[in-house]
Design brief:
single chain, alpha/beta, D-Maltodextrin-Binding Protein, domain 2, 2 domains, 7-stranded mixed β-sheet, 5-stranded mixed β-sheet, 12 strands, 43% helix, 17% strand, globular, disordered N terminus, ABC_SsuA_sub-bd, ATPase-coupled transmembrane transporter activity, cell inner membrane, cell membrane
Length: 383
């Protein structure tokens, strides 16, 4: 699917900013980085390093000079924001293999970039992962890790919508046709008996595919009556007078569902396995640091969001947004199977291909080395 009109933001390729961020961090000695230093942020890779290690010497891993990584400027992609941002745990694990990052608004555009080779690895939602894998007949990507659960809500204008029974005739925004929130909303409406054309978004309830940056403006102007969106957009709408009508966690067993995976091009995984492992080590270490240092992590996420969007989030937005997301390594593979069926019910997929979509062997190798339990692929792993 082609990118949206937000390409100037979402598809702008940026050369690696980690060096710039590190220089700014050292110069400013900001509180978050002081806290990171005090709690040993990044110490794992430093402790493992030796004079002979690629990381210690700044050597390129697998002989690769650059790895291209995609993600969204969302709190649900907090692992990427922190791991590639000021703390730089992912870059530390990569040594002399430099990160070149690219920001996207929604999953379909990122899948397009992955298929074209514009990125090698990406943080992304489950629905575009399923769609991309299915359309390529299982040849385009592998899911290699989880990253986050939760962080999605249906937020509405309480003057227009007072209950879930008031959705008929209303206009609800999602980030992009076929993205994870779009599929979730279409599935939910179908279960409630509403008829909506999946492609056009027209029906008993109208779905307006809207860039997350534009959604708060459309909400204020009354162009939409609500939105099924990830954090921090959901909390932005609440700060602007919206009401959370439904937290998606309530629709899932134990309140857990995958909202962000890490994917990789299959060709890249085969050719540069040590680079992939290094990125996964950085991700695992970053998630551990986020969960051990929530206040500092929240600030670190907000610092990167400020750099990406030009404006930091106020406390009334970043606090609940961060609280609503769980950062974890487990891909929650069983929930991906359910989300594939949601796409079928929504009319966006006819026969999703899931066999072999996961390759969790590199992740489980990293987890084992860190003394952590392995994670399961729900029978959907590559052979």
């Amino acid at each position: 699917m082609p990118a949206t009109s937000s390409d100037s933001f979402a598809r702008t390729t940026r050369s690696t900013r980690s060096a710039k961020r590190q220089r700014l961090a050292v110069a400013a000695l900001t509180l978050p980085l002081l806290a990171l230093s005090a709690c040993g942020y990044g110490s794992k890779s430093e402790d493992k390093g030796s004079d002979a290690s690629p990381v210690a010497q700044g050597k390129a891993i697998d002989g690769l000079g650059e790895v291209k990584i995609g993600y969204f400027a969302n709190v649900t992609h907090g692992t990427a924001l922190v791991g590639l941002g000021q703390g730089g745990l992912i870059q530390k694990e990569l040594g002399g293999t430099k990160v070149k990052s690219q920001v996207f608004n929604a999953g379909p555009a990122e899948i397009e970039a992955l298929n074209s080779g514009a990125i090698d690895i990406g943080w992304i939602g489950p629905s575009p992962s399923i769609n991309g894998y299915t359309k390529s007949q299982g040849k385009s990507l592998r899911i290699i890790s989880g990253s986050a659960s939760g962080g999605v809500s249906l937020v509405v204008n309480p003057k227009k919508i007072k209950s879930l029974d008031d959705l008929e005739g209303k206009t609800i925004a999602t980030p992009q046709l076929g993205n994870t929130q779009d599929v979730a909303l279409l599935n939910y409406l179908a279960e409630k008996g509403y008829k909506v054309d999946a492609t056009s978004g027209k029906g008993d309830v109208n779905i307006a595919r809207t860039d997350n940056k534009v959604t708060p403006i459309a909400f204020k102007n009354g162009d939409i009556d609500g939105a099924w969106v990830p954090e921090p957009t959901a909390s932005k709408l609440v700060a602007d007078g919206g009401k959370v009508l439904l937290d998606e966690r309530k629709l899932w067993k134990d309140g857990k569902f995958v909202i962000t995976n890490i994917i990789v091009r299959q060709e890249f995984l085969e050719k540069y396995p040590k680079v992939v492992e290094a990125v996964l080590r950085g991700s695992v270490n970053t998630n551990a640091w986020i969960n051990e240092n929530p206040d500092e992590a929240k600030q670190a996420i907000n610092d990167v969001l400020k750099e990406e969007t030009g404006k930091a989030l106020p406390a009334e937005v970043i606090d609940p947004a961060f609280e609503n997301v769980d950062f974890l390594d487990d891909p929650l593979a069983a929930t991906l199977r359910d989300e594939a069926q949601h796409a079928v019910k929504a009319g966006l997929l006819k026969d999703p291909l899931l066999d072999g979509i996961y390759d969790l062997r590199p992740l489980n190798k990293v987890l084992s080395a860190a003394g952590k339990p392995s994670v399961d692929d729900a029978g959907l792993g590559a052979k």
